[in-house]
Specification:
Radius of gyration: 19 Å
Strand content: under 5%
Distance between the termini: 60 Å
Helix content: 55-70%
Structural class: mainly alpha
Oligomer: single chain
Order of helices and strands: HHHHHHHHHH
Number of helices: 10
Largest sheet: none
């Protein structure tokens, strides 16, 4: 920091980002951004998205869009994202993930959210917890095998399931 050329290492990134924001150290913030551009991986993107602000958060979001399938399946922080963050991600038209993989990831997030809130992990509670994020899954573009998996999960109401099957038959 004192040399105007701070070097960031992986274990220091979150602390450095917080310090840069708190103390308004622009050179430290730029060093964090440089590290983010070079050091984002499917295993740390959600953690950095959670901790970042402004440009850092935007970089992480773009990375999440581009590597969504790996991130949903491999980033341990995916299930720690806030509901509002998941809505932003799931509603993006630039995600590189199949809708069934997104659905599976959102179910895993829902189970983790039930645990965080100390809720019973039954299908009714899971449906309630995931309702706002599930509305962004593009069920109508799923194939019949994927729709059958969704049906087996029990997460959708009978009315929602009938609507999906009617749509797939009529399309």
């Amino acid at each position: 920091i004192y040399t105007d050329r701070p070097e960031i290492q992986a274990g220091q990134l979150l602390g450095a980002m917080n310090a840069a924001a708190k103390y308004q150290v622009s050179t430290l913030r730029l060093a964090c951004i440089r590290y983010l551009q070079a050091g984002l991986t499917p295993q740390n993107a959600c953690e950095l998205y959670l901790a970042g602000s402004g440009q850092e958060r935007l970089l992480a979001f773009k990375f999440i869009e581009e590597f969504a399938e790996d991130i949903v399946n491999k980033d341990p922080f995916f299930c720690q994202l806030r509901e509002s963050d998941l809505i932003s991600i799931a509603s993006s038209n630039h995600l590189t993930i199949s809708e069934i993989e997104l659905f599976r990831g959102l179910l895993r997030w829902g189970v983790a959210e039930c645990r965080r809130k100390g809720l019973v992990e039954d299908i009714v509670t899971l449906a309630r917890v995931t309702y706002n994020v599930m509305t962004h899954v593009r069920f109508p573009i799923m194939n019949t095998d994927d729709l059958f998996e969704v049906h087996r999960s029990g997460i959708l109401t009978q009315e929602e399931q009938i609507g999906l099957y009617a749509h797939s038959v009529l399309s």
